[in-house]
Task: structure prediction
Amino acid sequence: MFKRAWIAAKSAARRSTFARRVLAALLAASLLPAAASSVEARDPLLAYGARIVGDDARTRIVIDFDREPRFSVHYIANPERIVVDLPATAFGFPAKDLAARGLFKDIRYGKMDEESARIVLTTTGPVKLALAKVQADETGKGHRLVLDAEMIDKRAFAELVKTQSWSDRTDAAQTTSAIPAPEKAAPGDFVIAVDAGHGGIDTGAIGVDTKTEEKQVTLAFAKALTDRLNKEPGIKAFLTREDDEFLSLSQRVLIARQNHAGLFISLHADTLKQKDIRGATVYTISDKASDKLAADLAERENLSDQIAGKETVAEPPEVADILLDLTRRETQAFSISLAESVLNSFKDQVGTINNPHRHAGFRVLQAPDVPSILLEIGFLSNAEDEKLLLDDAWRGKIVGLLTDAVKRYRAAVMANGG
Result:
């Protein structure tokens, strides 16, 4: 009797402990917006409050943490930005609490990788932090990070950039050693890189009704497409990113090339000022944009690295190489063929915008030897498109049509001895 009671009590205690843990996890999740990185086993910092005050001469930012954060500050030019690097952090305060004002015209924050997060403060001009410190909260709840920014002249800002000692640790991820190669890829397998646009600190577009972030939409489509493609014999697909992390545009290209991809498909769901425009669009790379809409979209997409606090590096001048030029021309022809195959699959099945095959200078499509397309599945700025983008059944339909397009493309390449 006593033994049964003891066992029952122990079981109840376990259930109670489990319930408390589940409740705590649910409460924590309810505090976090979709933009926040998921709570990891490493127990990230929680930034649970934020505020910003000041004007265009001096601006203060205060962020509340559940415990003392380690941080570092760096300055980047062209355009002027202040980067605050943190350990893994979940941002649990409303975005409106840290809306840009005063000396800051844009404020971004989010996950960079499994071990780090970042705050990027794009300034209205040359600015420095006159004060950057962590202090204990007087209520004993945790610690707060205090950042006081003030105007300086261009020469002083240039000197800050020049004299700082900083090597961006996230640039080390240019190697793809941590990226899994396609599973069981055999000789002759057709390898496809599926790229979920945006991620981490770069949220992408925001849904007009649900406020869903583009990075979530693209990852859901990328995972579904990869799973579907891997059911096809002779095809092996893999993701450039598998969770909510930031990848630079050049990293995405490098991941595809190092895994010997025969195709690169980058998925997006952007926004437009014209809310009535809806439907899918397929983009290929070109030195000259096909139209203003394509040029504007490429310009926004190419800002991804800047949003994440990456330095703007001038592209190295290309070495005059006739073989490289021929490779690019051939790759571009294959990219156009893939775009046409996708649009043929979509015909009478999926709505597209007028002139649905467009082209512009997208940096993520710049691999000289990997046929690449950027697919705008729909526009989060349009309420009807947004509903479809969040619909599981419609996602499955798109994935099936894309798989058919890839299979036809592959058959044509194989028939031509590719």
